[in-house]
Input
Amino acid sequence: MNAKNNASEVASLRSLSESLSAGAVKSIDLVAEALARIDRFNAELNCFITVSGDAALAAAEEADQLITAGSAGPLTGIPIAHKDIFCTLGTRTSCGSKMLDNFVPPYDATVVSKLKNAGLISLGKTNMDEFAMGSSNESSYYGICKNPWSPERVPGGSSGGSAAAVAASLVVASTGTDTGGSIRQPAAFCGISGIKPTYGRVSRLGMIAYASSLDQGGPMARSAEDCAWLLEAMAGHDPRDSTSIDRAVDRYSANLDLDLTGLKIGVPEEFFSDGLSDGVAEVVRTALQTLEAMGGTLVEVSLPRTSLSIPAYYVIAPAEASTNLARYDGVRYGHRCANPGDLEDLYTRSREEGFGDEVQQRILVGTYALSSGYYDAFYKKAQQVRRLIADDFASAFEQVDVIAGPTTPSVAFPVGEKSNDPTAMYLEDIYTLAANLAGIPAMSIPCGFSEGLPVGMQLLGQHFDEMRLLALAHQYQQRTDWHRFVPPGFEV
Amino acid sequence: MSVTSDTIREIASLAKLRVEEEEISSLTERFNTVLALFDELQSANVSELAPMANPLDATQPLREDFVTEQNQREAMQEIAPSVSEGHYLVPRVVE
Output
């Protein structure tokens, strides 16, 4: 495959918004076309767990009326998708788990209601690793989602369905969540853009909890510009999420041409260490040269504790997960085993039947890390190491404005290659985990191809500096067209 | 650091997860592979550092104490596996 000949005109939130407001296209047609594409490709890709066709068509009719009446917003009538971790009133929200196969939430997540209020239409819910625990989408109860660039390869995870759906042009944008790289890694593997905002920037209400001190929702789309539009609509203070930050949301979309002359871009040597594939290294180094040619100055920085982010994360995240997932007990909602003998049997069998292997493994690790006698050695120590990692970033940001490097050590790996080796899978997250531990914003944008597969460049910023990341990514995308490459066979 | 099969049984009991006896040895092996990953943590010198529970070091926000939520018992119980007269039903606990 010659990926270089593959850039094409692709729809964007802006182009669809302009076509809708000019009357060149109706929302009902956009929704019907998207549903037809999902119908055509979903059996092959398995991006969607649930498709909400009727509800989407009804919402499109309402959107068209608003547009005709002149009372629509810029995003009114554009179809998107939600990762199946966001609660949707009246629509099954499975979180990729048998445990929640029958769960129809009685309320919308704040992200869902904010995007609905902005006029966006949900086409359905996208596939994901079970309870967002995974980097390959292989742990989904609903089967693996395929990477549109190569069906033998994983789309990444946990937001793999969202990334694959955007890459295959089934939707123009989708929501995702990122606890240790779950927006950025699948974005990189599928050749799209995605941003994990600062912790607390996007409400976690109704976003099914995995590791509460790390989880953060964000947008996934082809371009940084579309991410800016979507993040602007998603972000903001939510009094119903006690970790949500009460701080005004920047006008990301209006500041994409921000003057970045003289921007100091830190390049951490630890991100170009032994585990990085030569192909990815070469592509990312070329992308860094482009950033330099745009007027940036590359500065070598050090994040010496990068390797510690793996053990710190894989203690903290399972510990918090074991607590969060204690709520699934077969009593109030979710899976209940048949004919429980007694209360203990009800709890233990419902949980054993409802949770897959990786989730059970992480619950056990987390329970161990929090158990009496081990708390100091594991959870407390991991949280202390977390501060070291955050301090590394703070020192680096005294010298530079942003940090750039690879998103992943390799391109999308083959299905099954790492699924039986948890530590090999965990090492995949080496470049993404630290941003979650430090709570800083980080995004991945496509920057080229290696082995015919997309490569992602990661941009990391200081707390609440999403605007600069998005502007840098947008200006890079004005000079390059990697974000407009469409996998063969999925051209519109 | 590594754990034995007995520890796995004890943790599973604490986590309210039923584990089949024939799965114990493979589960223990997998568990120990993950634990080995954590050894690196012990080498970090962090004795003087305060644990970081929130990446922004934010504390719990407070608000006026007034009712913000309405009772939604019926909506919540509609999705429960087994309810009767407003109660969640579980196997009998007291004979």
Notes: The beta strands of chain B are 83-84, 87-88. Chain B has a mean pLDDT of 93. The helical segments of chain B are 5-14, 24-37, 39-42, 73-77. The CA atoms of residues 14 and 84 of chain B lie 29 Å apart.
